[in-house]
Amino acid sequence: SLVLIGSESYQYLSKSKTEKSGLLLSQIIESIIEDEPERINNYIDELLENGTSDYKTYALLLKSGNFISQDKLTDARETYTELIKKSENRLIKDLAILKLSYLNVDFDSFDQIQQQLSTIQEEDSPLKLFAYEVLAMSAYKHGLYEKGAEYLNMIIENEKTTNGMFDRAQMMLRVMNSK
Known about the structure:
This protein is mainly α. Helix content is 79%, strand content 0%. The protein has 9 helices and no strands.
């Protein structure tokens, strides 16, 4: 009987924590829509402190995005790096790697960017085409125009490419071909 009461209490607290986490996430989204960076930070910090592990992961993603919108790129890099280390969800981890590589495209060598994105370039990654886009940008920045064109052609030829990505790839390819 005591075990049953303990189990029910745990289920209630667990459900309650999940509900509170969901409510905080809703408040973060509302603050983003209303463009209130200070409230966003406060809610994110509260979610990081009191949320369930899944919600904490989402909070780190949102925190990084908020740093970027405030032009705090060093803070965003640190948060993405923390997320990469802590996340057990492969898609979230890959998204953080991808976002970090976008931030580092101006600073890291092509080989470094290629290494960072190696797991995302695998056949089954839903973010593979975005990785190709970052690699093409990095190749361009380092004067590796043929390599960049290879990645852009992989985007253009892939049936999963969205219209927006297709258009960006064609535009970038025209620029690379003019070099």
